[in-house]
User: Which sequence fits this backbone?
């Protein structure tokens, strides 16, 4: 029997999949989401969300998609991994992703495909009065030629608005890529960096996920001192927090306990450090723990 059932959960509370149901809207995540939604509504073109590894970008994109699904005036498309070696592969993938019929060409050239994309955006945005959004996760993997394709798409506009709304979510390397392309960088209408959580938010996120998973017992499963230990080790990086919480709950069962206390967390962290399977940058925190 899984620890979830034994501890009285309906669902797994600390799964690492980017499930929007388990996404706690911290101040930063909420600010990012709200502002992107505003940018999409006013059709300003380009929004960029940066964040270090495991800060919640993919989960935020799922939450955004969940919001857009409820809007009948939106057409949205998602690219989960934009690693394309050349312009032609990227443009072809966009045409496919937008579900554009190109059967009228026997062998379309890049120029044909670009014009087809432009016509598609005009048809959706002006004739049908819909907002077309393209959300790209892992955007740090975009090559220079793909960024150039996107820049050209962002140039398609009416007198009042951009025809394509682009949301890029990527790790911090994306910044160094685009800062070197001034005519791309200049077009960003909203930029935001997701930082790790502070202590309060780490605690709230843990408690939120425990509640969301259906925990009904009237007691705190994670004691405050344990959360302090989790926070200090993880420095508030959500994925690290979640992985440690998952391990802690497994060990609660193994050790016949009812709650996660500071001692249990300290044991897990020491074990992680001894095994050598830890992130070196997190180990730097050990002295403060
Ligand atoms: N605000 C939050 N509330 C609850 N869980 C969160 C939150 N932010 C992130 N997480 C969780 O942390 C884990 C990592 O998040 P996610 O995969 O979205 O990070 P990422 O920034 O996309 O990472 P990467 O840079 O490796 O792609 C996921 O399990 C996610 O559900
Ligand atoms: Mg991600």
Assistant:
């Amino acid at each position: 029997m899984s620890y979830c059932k034994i501890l009285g959960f309906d669902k797994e509370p600390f799964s690492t999949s980017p499930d929007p149901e388990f996404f706690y809207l911290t101040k930063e995540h909420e600010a990012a989401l709200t502002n992107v939604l505003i940018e999409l509504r006013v059709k300003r073109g380009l929004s960029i969300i940066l964040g270090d590894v495991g800060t919640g970008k993919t989960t935020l994109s799922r939450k955004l998609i969940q919001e857009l699904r409820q809007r009948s005036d939106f057409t949205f498309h998602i690219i989960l991994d934009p690693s394309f070696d050349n312009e032609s592969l990227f443009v072809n993938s966009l045409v496919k992703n937008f579900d554009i019929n190109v059967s009228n060409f026997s062998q379309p050239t890049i120029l044909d495909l670009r014009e087809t994309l432009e016509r598609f955006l005009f048809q959706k945005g002006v004739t049908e009065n819909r907002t077309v959004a393209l959300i790209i996760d892992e955007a740090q993997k975009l090559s220079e030629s793909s960024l150039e394709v996107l820049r050209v798409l962002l140039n398609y506009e009416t007198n009042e608005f951009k025809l394509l709304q682009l949301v890029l979510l990527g790790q911090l390397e994306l910044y160094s890529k685009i800062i070197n392309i001034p005519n791309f960088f200049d077009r960003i209408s909203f930029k935001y960096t997701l930082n790790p959580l502070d202590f309060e938010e780490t605690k709230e996120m843990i408690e939120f996920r425990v509640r969301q998973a259906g925990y009904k017992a009237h007691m705190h499963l994670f004691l405050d001192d344990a959360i302090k230990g989790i926070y200090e080790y993880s420095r508030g990086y959500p994925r690290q927090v979640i992985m440690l919480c998952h391990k802690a709950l497994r060990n609660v069962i193994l050790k016949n306990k009812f709650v996660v206390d500071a001692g249990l967390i300290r044991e897990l962290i020491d074990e992680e450090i001894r095994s050598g399977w830890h992130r070196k940058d997190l180990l730097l925190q050990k002295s403060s723990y």
Notes: Residues 283-289 have pLDDT under 50 and may be disordered. DSSP finds 13 helices and five strands in the chain. Residues 57-58, 137 surround magnesium ion (ligand 2) (CB under 6 Å).
